[in-house]
Amino acid sequence: EAMRHAIEDVEYAEYLFDRFYGIGSCESGGVTRLGYTEVEDEMHRALCALGEEKGYGHFADQVGNTYLYRQRYSMDEPYWLVGSHLDSVIEGGRYDGVAGIIAGLLVMGWAERDGVDLPIRVGAMRCEESSNFGRSTIGSGLITKEIYKHDVGEAVNKQGETLHEVFDRKGYSLTPDRIQGIREYLELHIEQGKVLEEYGDAVGIVSTIAGPRRFKVHVHGNAEHSGATPMGMRSDALAAAAEIILEVEEIGKSEAMHQSVATVGVVANHPNALNVIPGEVELGIDMRGIDVASLDRMEARLKAACTRICEKRRLKYFREKTSDIPPIEMSSETQQKLLDAAKRLRIPHRLMISGAGHDAMSFAHICDTGMVFIPCAKGISHNKKEFATIESILDGAMVMYEHLKEEAL
Rounded distance, CA 156 to CA 148, Å? Predict the structure, then answer.
């Protein structure tokens, strides 16, 4: 009997994955499913159709997030929400977000099959990725009234349209009612790193989601002829930026023991011509960590490094902080219950941090919140090579279900 169920579970999970597979496909082999576009709408319609096949009800909230629910329960009853997202980055992979929705459908199906008394909903949050509007977790941030999302209306998408305009067109509200009645929010996600794979663990239980602090640093020198300007008379903005980039790496390394990281991911060089000394450079810097004191030290060292390097080279610079979200703790009680569930199932597991942001960040301040990570091949994500096994999705879903069975009414 157990073997038959296991085979059915794998087949159903593969079927779910296949139903989403082709939507937003790119010639490159990846998928582009940007938040609040027709392609994301199509993903949500596919989810509703999958729910209907199983006899679940579905509805959308005031910002377009989609929920499936078991029809035997009244809409006023407190419920468990298993959530994730269905959008992707540009030319992204097929597992980020989708794995969590598949896990939710599996858990809901098992509760039905086993007759477990569990008011549960599967929630697909809109626009989790920042790829379209330059802001992440928009759908979940708006309905939880997360303070960092109060000014997203003016955010502009790839087509030059503001979120305000998109919402007006689709009949959504930038000031929705706060979501009510959640007993606990759970989310399964691919790790997007290689910790689980390196340690050979099947699931990770997340303790804290790292807080990103992001900066733009503008370095101003003089754009002059590269042949006619002697070396001693130059104000080379790119050479200064190169020193800052290496300094950022050193800052990250020095705080690594606190699980902090620092990255320069963007370099915009002007005029970017072979025979012109770079006159202006803009750097995009991403610092993340789970220890606020460590983040403070990194920020102070960044400021000091920019000042020191630019003074030495007689250049001007200015620095702006573009985002500052604190590290967010998952509920310690939920963590423990998920760890206990993994233990009972004898699934190899570890407690770990999340370096990436997720919808769970939005829910942490309104209800108990937990995250389960599963391994992804070589830690690759946001890339067409992103890959996780169906078995891994089942492992993570089983840990959530084992925990939820204990919570059942």
Answer: 17
